[in-house]
Amino acid sequence: MEKRQQIYEGKAKKVYATDDSRFVIVSYKDDATALDGLKKGTIAGKGAINNRMSNFLMRLLEKHGVPTHFVDELNDRETVVKKVSIVPLEVIIRNVSAGSFAKRFGVEEGIVFESPTIEFSYKNDELHDPLMNSYHAIALKVATREEIEYIKELAFKVNEVLKEYFLSLDVRLIDFKLEFGKLEDGTIVLADEISPDTCRFWDAVTNEKLDKDRFRRDMGGVEDAYKEMMHRVLGE
Ligand code: TMP
Ligand code: ASP
Question: Is-contact 49 30, C-beta < 8 A?
């Protein structure tokens, strides 16, 4: 497959066209942002870690029956994925209170939920990704009722598979964000990435944070946390 012109640049990835209109190539950057792009930095080695970890997890999910955009890892930073139109919803699953949930409801981080929660945010940096319920999404034609039901089903399935997998690495999956995309024929598949940028990972023994919160909260040890997660997942 031949890489053609860049068609999009986001905060953490670039997307290139290919000579086959069904596929695009994503290229992961070391750039990191927080607060809707207000806080900017770089995390050395992050692009390669997120690319490889995300691909590994997408393959694992495919084995468990979750359809994804993943096609082929080209090198450390670049991957061929199916071309989708992204459903502009950030789908957030939480197993334990943290981050904006803890803030919004005035509770501490670390409360273990009996059942996972799900919420949607409308993907729009200018509006600061506002919370959006399924009725809002249907009203604004962001997705149909059936698509939302299917997305919810897939998101909870992803949680079950990943929660168990990470626990086997002594990592607690606290919460995470997923994005879904639509293929030309309307089929919905899991898209974007699954990485320390988009998940909260706490060490199962010490509760040490092993994710982007170290960058968001200026905690230091950011690169080491990404490397540690890479080591646990890929053994390198
Ligand atoms: P939150 O607690 O800040 O709402 O974040 C919930 C999860 O979503 C957390 O694992 C981090 C992830 N996330 C993203 O992937 N992108 C974002 O822009 C935000 C705000 C959170
Ligand atoms: N990626 C998000 C942004 O820059 C923020 C985050 O992950 O916290 O807005």
Answer: no
